[in-house]
Design a protein that fits this description.
Structural class: mainly alpha
Order of helices and strands: HHHHHH
Distance between the termini: 21 Å
Strand content: under 5%
Radius of gyration: 27 Å
C-alpha cells in the first residue's frame, strides 16, 4: 500500500512539474484533482466539525431550537444564486462583516499597532532599536503626501523609500527561499522515497 501511495505521489509530482515545459492537459488534470480533493476534504471536515456538532446535534439531540436563527441566516447566503432573491443575502453578509470587524479591529489594533509600538519603544537603548525607530519615522513620513517632498523633508522621505526597498527585497527573498525549500522537498521525495537513489 505504501509503494502504491509513493507511486501515485511520484506520478502526480511529475504531472505538476510538466508545467515547467508548458501548460498542458496533464498539468491541468493534476491541478483539478488537487482542487477537487481539497474541496471534498474540507467539505467533510466542515460537516463533521461544524454542521453536525453545532447544528444537527444541538437542534435534534439537545433540542436547542434557537439554532434555527443562524441556520436560516446561513441559508440566506445562498439567495445570491438567484437574481430575484439576491438582496436577501445582504442581511447575513452585513451581520457577518459587522461582527467580524467588531471582533478583529480591536485584536488587530492590539497585535499590529500597540504591541509593535511598545516593542519599538523598549528597544531604543540599542543600535538596532534606534535604526528601527528611524525606519518607522522615515517610512511613515514618505506616505505623508500633503507636503512637497523636498529639502530636509525630502531627504527623510528618500530614506523611507530605502527602508521600504530593503523590506520588499527581504520579503521577496524569503518568498523565493520558501518556494525553493518546497522544490527541494519534492526532489528529495523523488530521489529518496520514490527512486531510492539517495538514502
Amino acid at each position: 500500500m505504501t509503494e502504491l501511495g509513493t507511486l501515485i505521489a511520484l506520478i502526480l509530482t511529475l504531472m505538476v512539474f510538466s508545467f515547467l515545459y508548458k501548460e498542458n492537459p496533464i498539468y491541468r488534470f493534476a491541478e483539478y484533482l488537487l482542487v477537487g480533493i481539497s474541496v471534498g476534504y474540507y467539505l467533510v471536515i466542515i460537516c463533521r466539525n461544524t454542521i453536525y456538532p453545532l447544528v444537527i446535534e444541538k437542534l435534534f439531540i439537545h433540542g436547542e431550537y434557537l439554532v434555527i436563527v443562524p441556520v436560516c441566516l446561513g441559508l440566506l447566503m445562498f439567495a445570491r444564486l438567484n437574481k430575484r432573491w439576491a438582496y436577501l443575502s445582504r442581511l447575513p453578509l452585513s451581520l457577518m462583516i459587522g461582527f467580524g470587524a467588531g471582533i478583529s479591529i480591536p485584536a488587530m489594533l492590539q497585535a499590529r499597532i500597540l504591541k509593535q509600538m511598545s516593542a519599538s519603544m523598549q528597544s531604543l537603548a540599542t543600535i538596532n532599536g534606534i535604526i528601527i525607530l528611524i525606519g518607522i519615522i522615515s517610512t511613515i513620513t514618505y506616505f505623508y503626501f500633503s507636503k512637497r517632498q523636498e529639502g530636509m523633508f525630502g531627504k527623510v522621505t528618500r530614506l523611507g523609500t530605502y527602508f521600504l526597498m530593503v523590506f520588499f527585497g527581504a520579503t521577496f527573498g524569503y518568498t523565493v527561499m520558501s518556494r525553493i525549500s518546497l522544490l527541494i522537498g519534492r526532489f528529495e521525495f523523488i530521489l529518496r522515497d520514490a527512486l531510492r537513489v539517495i538514502s
